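Continuing the batch. This is chain 6 of the set; chains 1 through 5 are on the previous pages. Same settings as before, nothing changed between runs. Recording input and output for traceability.
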Amino acid sequence: MPNDPFRSPPSPQARWLAGAGVVLATVLFGGGFVAGRHGALAGLKPADLVTVRYAVTGICFAPWMIRALRRGGWARPAGIRWGQIVLLTFFGAVGNAAVTQIGLALSPANHGAILSPALTVLSGAGLSALVLGEHPSAGAYLGIPVALAGLALIGGESFRATGFDTWPGDAVLAASGVLWTVFTLLVRRWRIAPVPAAAVINVLSAAVWIPGYAVATGFRPLLDARLEEVAGQALFLGLLHGALAVILWARGIAVLGAARTLLFPALVPVWGTLLAALVLGERLSALQWMGVAVVSAGMAATAWRPSRRGRA
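Output for chain 6:
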């Protein structure tokens, strides 16, 4: 396959497009926290929102999955082994969602918006080098600490208000960030293309999550909710957050590599904070605005590479 980014070096244009796609994915990931808050204000619980997400993506990707089963057989749909599918689904989809919901039951949502991306960035730098031999750019050694300092400014007020009482939930939310790192590394190591990666984890997640939710609730919370709220969540959490963002993320892994792609989650709290101010009217403090600027500077620093003459 001449256009396979895993086998042929991507062009500079392909790298820029992949980078722009990963940035858009972080916007959608950050918007997921805002959507969750909006749904909570409308009376929906996190489990209800997870159901809406996987119901939509499961339906969208089901035709692709059926064709893949016909082409590759039940043993290896689209050339992906079931063992790989199960692991990808746990680390990057419904398993990660379940871990996140446990953390959110014990800690505030804005703790998750900070801790999960921060641990993705931290664990990604080390694990990508250890597992794949991919090392961050020279600028990342400066940019990562700067970006993490910015994340601390964004979420510092919330952490000061709660103290150490939420540490069990905080630990679980931090673990969810490491799970996302492992998902990213597995996609890269197994060379799984973007659409298959999104399709298999969403279809299997729907098959695992929705029957359990139906038994537990009979879909009553969603039937009692406002139709426009459920439809809006289906559009954003389902199509944009659950399908498009995952495809763009997987494309970034293929083109940019895992080490570089795993730097981008530092932007998730930035977009989440800005979108919360825009959509929900939540005001940002001076420290949070400063944190946004510091994270942006840190991410800009990660793109720096010394010139060839300097390296020589």
